[in-house]
């Protein structure tokens, strides 16, 4: 028999692999469905790719790849037998055959036991070889099977790759000198003290200076003022401002020239008014920990409809999503999106086509994982009502178990959060930010096909007026979410709030228990009124006056989307950097008419601001840029012309000889390859992109030659690089992203795809922070696709948040389906008795038909 098995496996031996370090073994979940070893058909793990497939999908993988050998895993879960005395009868378990396999059910481990079964299956004849079978199998096959059976599950072990170096503690951390200069850093509104850059900002931990970093390959931009500051004053440590969380921050040592750890970061930041200890207290364990938790308790009860006997619902569209640990922000957004026909049609309607044309590794394909998740939610396959016998058993045992199990989004979360510093963590996140992140991913992955995010996309018209000359400028930009302020001053119970605040202060001064908290009740009309009010434009430069002046901006809808997302701006940061949430209730209407907010464009009697740019302000230090001469000499020793080496090092941002060498290889054939380095930006004025009050990119704007050179050094065509920079307001990070999502042959569709999602403080939530004056709803061929129509809407979903801030708490969503409201609370799906429409965080409206 041993010889027979050996001969049977000989033709397939070259395809059987032993998992190596870094290989992920997907033995707990199918790549195309939510089947697992506990499913009726078990799970098949390919012995070459280590991907897992359910019974109905394994044949597809065999036909596509020709891989014939799979390991079939089956877990049998049984309830323990009960003895006469009521205790469980001890029963010998089958040894763990495949280790580190997580249970897919919320079992009480003391009440259940399981037996694991494994065997090799050879396709297409389905020849089965039970495991373990050490004596009869070839040695290589035995080793491979043992490695697969004992491998960690694909998502259990999240360790850095072997090539990543461990970050070391800085030698300056313990003895860092901090100047007592009274500097306090606000929680927002930062800009570089030398060039007014507002991104890639670093706080020097010695004197509190806020300065910009350099441009790096990852796209973060700056003019290197933080490094210049170190060279001038020798203050060694700086922390990146937008990375500060209760868990730590990104710290860089200029003297050690690398990212470092600072064990005393909390103490160092508190010197400048940033209280990480207080931030941690507010967010530990996902709950608010103030001395007075009552408003949060009430909020939790109301939003989750606690105390009500909610009826569970099952079937298509009523499948819950398991909470992976602070993943409810993801679950609620997905539940809402897959209740929209455009997303259902794109991913579930095209399921077979997406699966058939999926890449060899479907776990890394966005469309495949969206289709898998959409099918899991809408098929009803994972939301079946309990058997009558199960209900009778519960009654007999006088116990109640929630029989809804839901689906696990682990594979999907790993894919969409990859490379994102926040979403890839296990911390709670902002559902609004994840909504924009997911819409952005849909945009990127919908090139050349139906784009369901079209239903959310709309155009915003921004009108800026110079207060002195009264002239105006109109620009348009793309957006996906309307942000409404919550003006506390407009609360209908204002007197009650003032009385409460006075009592609270008095109790605080006299160390007495605080009074019963009062929730502000704000009319929705007041939120809309605050939205329409003009806002000041910081650092406005008037082209009519040729000088800085006061300017105001108003925003209106240039088009209305088919589905409108409305975020209530409930969250802010206190002066102590502690995130705070406004405890407000807003009477959000079921029907909404925004027709009066339709943009009108340039009006009769209005005079436009001249299309002029402010004068170029040269930096005080106009010396030639510093170039790493060591890297230059290394390249010159290879035989390349000295001037070419200098240009290579300069245009790659002093990022080392390897990057410079790649630049040389890409530019060797250019006629001016060995010509001396010339910098047009220092010899002749270039148009500035920061002077336009809206950040709009004028049509005649030429990107900085340095930026063009950096992109071309990466191998991108010069014309395509210039187009990318113009389309992204000369932002290198977004330009790189634009290039990858806009192949050169598809430039005619350039403006239809969006760049990276970002949250900002505008009244709209902007995926494209640049404002493009060329966008127009009348230019369908060159502008973004919008589904314009009447501005009348009906509420169909809301996402609610419970907790003190977006860094903690819990999310649930309510969706109106078949004329009734349904609450989705992780894996539990029930009919809603009292949807908390006044406590929502994000509201979703669908456009009413014109009839």
From TrEMBL:
Domain UBP-type residue range list: 168-276
Pfam families hit by this protein: UBA, UCH, zf-UBP, zf-UBP_var
GO MF annotation terms: cysteine-type deubiquitinase activity; zinc ion binding
InterPro entries: Papain-like_cys_pep_sf, Peptidase_C19_UCH, Ub_carboxyl-term_hydrolase, UBA, UBA-like_sf, Ubiquitinyl_hydrolase, UBP13_Znf-UBP_var, USP
Keyword Zinc found: yes
Binding site for Zn(2+): 192, 195, 212, 225
Biased composition (Polar residues): 755-776
EC numbers for this chain: 3.4.19.12
Uppermost EC category: hydrolase
The organism's place on the tree of life at top rank: Eukaryota
Residue span, UBA domain: 626-667, 702-742
Domain USP positions: 319-848
Segments of this protein annotated with the region Disordered: 682-706, 749-787
Active site: residue positions: 328 (nucleophile), 810 (proton acceptor)
Reaction(s) catalysed by this chain's protein: Thiol-dependent hydrolysis of ester, thioester, amide, peptide and isopeptide bonds formed by the C-terminal Gly of ubiquitin (a 76-residue protein attached to proteins as an intracellular targeting signal)
Biased segments, Basic and acidic residues type: 777-787
GO biological process: autophagy; protein deubiquitination; proteolysis
The UniProt record lists the keyword Transcription: no
Keyword terms of this UniProt record: Autophagy, Hydrolase, Metal-binding, Protease, Repeat, Thiol protease, Ubl conjugation pathway, Zinc, Zinc-finger
Family: Belongs to the peptidase C19 family.
PANTHER family per record: UBIQUITIN CARBOXYL-TERMINAL HYDROLASE, UBIQUITIN CARBOXYL-TERMINAL HYDROLASE 13
Protein name in the entry: Ubiquitin carboxyl-terminal hydrolase
Source species of the chain: Fundulus heteroclitus
Highest classification ranks of the organism: Eukaryota, Metazoa, Chordata, Craniata, Vertebrata
């Amino acid at each position: 028999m041993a010889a027979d098995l050996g001969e049977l496996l000989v033709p397939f031996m070259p395809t059987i692999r032993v998992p190596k370090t870094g290989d992920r073994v997907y033995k707990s979940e199918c790549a195309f469905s939510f089947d697992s070893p506990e499913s009726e058909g078990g799970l098949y793990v390919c012995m070459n790719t280590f991907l897992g497939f359910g019974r109905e999908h394994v044949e597809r993988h065999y036909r596509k790849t020709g891989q014939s050998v799979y390991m079939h895993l089956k877990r049998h879960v049984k309830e323990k037998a009960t003895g006469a005395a009521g205790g469980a009868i001890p029963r010998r378990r089958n040894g763990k055959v495949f280790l580190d396999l997580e249970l897919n059910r919320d079992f009480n481990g003391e009440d259940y036991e399981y037996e694991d079964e494994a065997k090799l299956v050879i396709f297409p004849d389905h020849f089965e070889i039970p495991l373990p079978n050490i004596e009869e199998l070839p040695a290589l096959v035995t080793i491979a099977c043992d490695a697969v059976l004992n491998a960690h599950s694909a998502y259990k072990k999240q360790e850095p790759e072997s090539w990543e170096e461990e970050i070391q503690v800085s030698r300056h951390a313990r003895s860092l000198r901090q100047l007592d200069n009274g500097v306090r850093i606000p929680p927002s509104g930062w800009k570089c003290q030398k060039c007014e850059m507002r991104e890639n900002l670093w706080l020097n931990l010695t004197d509190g200076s806020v300065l910009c970093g350099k441009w790096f390959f990852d796209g973060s931009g700056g003019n290197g003022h933080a490094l210049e500051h170190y060279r001038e004053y020798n203050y060694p440590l700086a922390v990146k401002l937008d990375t500060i969380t209760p868990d730590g921050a990104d710290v860089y040592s200029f003297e050690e020239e690398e990212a470092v750890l600072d064990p005393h970061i909390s103490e160092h930041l508190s010197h400048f008014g940033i209280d990480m200890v207080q931030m941690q207290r507010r967010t530990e364990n996902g709950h608010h920990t103030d001395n007075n938790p009552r408003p949060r308790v009430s909020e939790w009860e109301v939003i989750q409809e606690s105390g009500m006997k909610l009826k569970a619902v099952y079937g298509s569209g009523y499948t819950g999503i398991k909470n992976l640990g602070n993943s409810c922000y993801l679950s609620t957004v997905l539940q809402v999106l897959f209740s929209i026909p455009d997303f259902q049609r794109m991913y579930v309607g095209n399921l077979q086509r997406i699966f058939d044309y999926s890449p060899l590794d479907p776990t890394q394909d966005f469309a495949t994982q969206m289709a898998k998740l959409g099918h899991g939610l809408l098929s009803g396959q994972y939301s079946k009502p309990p058997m009558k016998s199960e209900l009778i058993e519960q009654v007999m045992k006088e116990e109640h178990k929630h029989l809804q199990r839901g689906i696990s989004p682990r594979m999907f979360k790993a894919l969409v959060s990859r490379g994102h510093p926040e979403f890839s963590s296990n911390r709670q996140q902002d559902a609004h930010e994840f909504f924009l992140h997911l819409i952005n991913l849909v945009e990127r992955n919908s090139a050349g096909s139906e784009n369901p995010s079209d239903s959310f996309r709309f155009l915003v018209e921004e009108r800026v007026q110079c207060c002195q000359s009264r002239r105006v400028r109109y620009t348009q930009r793309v957006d996906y979410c309307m942000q409404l302020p919550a003006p506390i001053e407009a609360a209908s119970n204002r007197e009650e709030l003032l009385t409460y605040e006075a009592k609270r202060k008095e109790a605080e001064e006299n160390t007495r228990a605080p009074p019963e908290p009062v929730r502000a009740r704000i009319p929705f009309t007041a939120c809309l009124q605050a939205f329409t009010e003009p806002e000041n434009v910081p650092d406005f430069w008037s082209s009519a006056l040729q000088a800085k002046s006061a300017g105001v901006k108003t925003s209106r809808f240039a088009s209305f989307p088919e589905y409108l997302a409305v975020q209530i701006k409930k969250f802010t940061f206190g002066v102590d950097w502690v995130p705070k949430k406004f405890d407000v209730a807003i009477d959000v209407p079921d029907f909404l008419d925004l027709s009066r907010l339709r943009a009108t464009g340039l009006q009769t009697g209005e005079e436009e601001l001249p299309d002029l740019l402010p004068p170029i302000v040269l930096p005080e230090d106009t010396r030639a840029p510093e170039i790493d001469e060591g890297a230059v000499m290394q390249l010159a020793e290879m035989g390349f012309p000295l001037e070419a080496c200098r240009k290579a090092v300069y245009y790659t941002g002093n990022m080392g000889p390897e990057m410079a060498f790649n630049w040389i290889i890409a530019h060797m054939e250019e006629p001016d390859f060995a010509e001396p380095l010339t910098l047009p930006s220092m010899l002749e004025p270039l148009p500035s992109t920061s002077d336009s009050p809206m950040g709009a990119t004028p049509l005649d704007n030429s990107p900085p030659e340095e930026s063009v050179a950096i992109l071309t050094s990466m191998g991108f065509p010069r014309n395509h690089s210039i187009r990318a920079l113009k389309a992204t307001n000369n932002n290198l990070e977004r330009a790189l992203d634009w290039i990858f999502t806009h192949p050169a042959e598809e430039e005619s569709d350039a403006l239809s795809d969006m760049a990276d999602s970002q949250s900002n403080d505008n009244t709209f939530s902007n995926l494209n922070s640049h404002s493009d004056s060329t966008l127009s709803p009348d230019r369908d061929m060159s502008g973004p696709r919008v589904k314009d129509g009447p501005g009348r809407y009906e509420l169909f979903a809301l996402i609610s948040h419970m907790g003190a801030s977006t860094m903690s708490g819990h999310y649930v969503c309510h969706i109106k389906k078949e004329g009734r409201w349904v609450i989705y609370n992780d894996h539990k799906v029930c009919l809603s008795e009292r949807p908390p429409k006044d406590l929502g965080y994000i509201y979703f409206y669908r456009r009413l038909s014109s009839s």
